[in-house]
Amino acid sequence: MTPGPRREMTESFPADSPLVARVRPSPNHGERRRPARPDCLILHYTGMPTFDGALDLLCDPRSEVSSHYAIGEQGEIVQLAPEARRAWHAGVGVWKGERDLNSASIGIEIANAGHEGGLPEFPRRQIDAVIALCRDIAARHAIAPARILAHSDIAPARKRDPGERFPWDALAAAGVGLWVPPAPLEGEALFGLGHEGPHVRALQAMLGLYGYGVEMTGVFDRPTEVTLAAFQRHFRPARVDGAPDASTLKTLRALIAAETGSP
Ligand SMILES: [Zn+2]
Q: In angstroms, rounded to a whole number, what is the distance separating the alpha carbons of residues 263 and 261?
């Protein structure tokens, strides 16, 4: 027998979803630790000028980053790592107490130049592809709507993606993710940095209840402020300033009620 060709690190694999246009294997993944099956979806923007540049980075062994999927501006879905594997997209973060979010999730990178590139709008074709892929993955893995997350939700101090222009409302209208109509903007911040007391504790408890990794200090400190900004970026994008205003608190309460009331 003649020996076969040497196994490449970046061996190709069958696509997990019929929506995949092509597989471009990245070497940047490992074994999932726990849970064995992913139970959340994390959405990102690439934050790079071109989709091809982003794919190159996600497949470069030196970058040590990857995701399971990447979606181009025209809606092309590329799979980079098998869903069974642990791709490297989440980094340091926490959601509902889970800290190994790479093991717990499937990651989708969405081509967009991001905040540094002027936060361009996401084309409708691209969003349609995001919706279709999220629905497919959520159905196959029984991922709850409230567990379809922004990278900024799990790492508020480090990440802003996919950003406040990402149309979570359009996703929710198509049955993807949990979202409630944001309460109208009104009034100023109810308290400021350094404020201490039961209102602050209640706010931290609500953020933590929904899933954010906030410490119950009882003080409106900088980490609580950036976490509140992450909440606004996802759920009350009209103003993302980390200020605890009435609209933000009402929206947060409504969201928690919606999650509790959902099956
Ligand atoms: Zn990200």
A: 7
List, as ranges, residues with CB under 5 A of the ion ligand 1: 44, 151, 161
CA of 2 to the centre of ligand 1 (A): 45
Residue at token pair 């109208």? 184
A 10 A CB-CB count for 64 gives 9
For residue 6, name the pLDDT band (cuts at 50, 70, 90).
very low
Q: What is the mean pLDDT of residues 91-108?
A: 96
| Residue 215 and residue 240 in contact, taking contact as beta carbons nearer than 8 Å | no
Q: CA 75 to CA 72: how far, in whole Å?
A: 5
Inter-residue contact 240 to 164 (CB < 8 Å) = yes
Distance, CA of 137 to chain centre: 14
Residues 8 and 26 sit within 8 Å (Cβ to Cβ): no
178-235: pLDDT as tens digits: 999 999 998 899 999 999 999 999 999 999 999 999 999 999 999 999 999 999 999 9
Contacts of 241 (CB under 8 A, 6+ apart): 229, 232
Contact between 93 and 27 under an 8 Å Cβ cutoff? The reply is: no
How many A from CA of 234 to the centre of ligand 1? 14
Which of 31, 76, 83, 109 does the annotation list as catalytic?
A: 109
Cα–ligand 1 centroid distance for 67 (angstroms): 9
Check residue 9 and give its pLDDT. 55
CB atoms within 10 A of CB 5: 6
